[in-house]
Amino acid sequence: MTLAATVGHLTASQNPTATAAGSHGFLSPTGVEIAFLLVGLVTLGAAVLTVTTRQLIHAALWLVVALGGLAVEYLLLTAEFIAWVQVLIYVGAVVVLILFGLMLTRAPIGRSPDADSGNRWAALTVAAASAAALVWVVVDAFRTTWIDLEGPAAGSTAVTGASLFQNWVLPFEALSVLLLAALVGAIVLSRKARATRAGEAMGAETSQPDPTPAGPTQSAPTQSAPTQAGPTQAGPSGTGGAR
Known about the structure:
This protein is an all-alpha fold.
């Protein structure tokens, strides 16, 4: 056996993946990759139906499917913490808030003719341009990214928490202050609205006219029935007496 053959045999035994890729030209997709593509197609279809349907309730339900599909994608990427945050915050809070808003505002259940603003082509152009820019940025950013498979998963709770409280402490605290300000603002606005409604109700009660008329009272004339006296007959003594 020559030296070149020995080196080639050792290289093939140490890196069989590269040998298979070189012989076949591509690597066969794994089950996780196939599931990732299928879930991605379902998520994309649900997102398209969310923005194209004319029924608001159906749009909210399709949004649940789209956000749930994103959570499954995070699970397939071994980002369990991000997946459960996606489910708890977006599916469990934001979508439920949208559904409650639709129910409390008594939105129509059927088709809404005013749901389309007429700028469909402009919106489609902006959406396509944004999607193309996002795909280009993500692919260019992660083209030379190396993942350490020996250490903990990048999306695990330990790695995410350490990165959040070591490298992103200031943005995290700024976000908490922003959420607190939004909560206080919502409370203040609700109190003002309640006080305004109470003042309007009191003003309506005081300005309501009295239903009874204030004019002079007229009493109905009373008629007295004429009294009829019975005939009197004079007795033998000449005085009227009763028999």
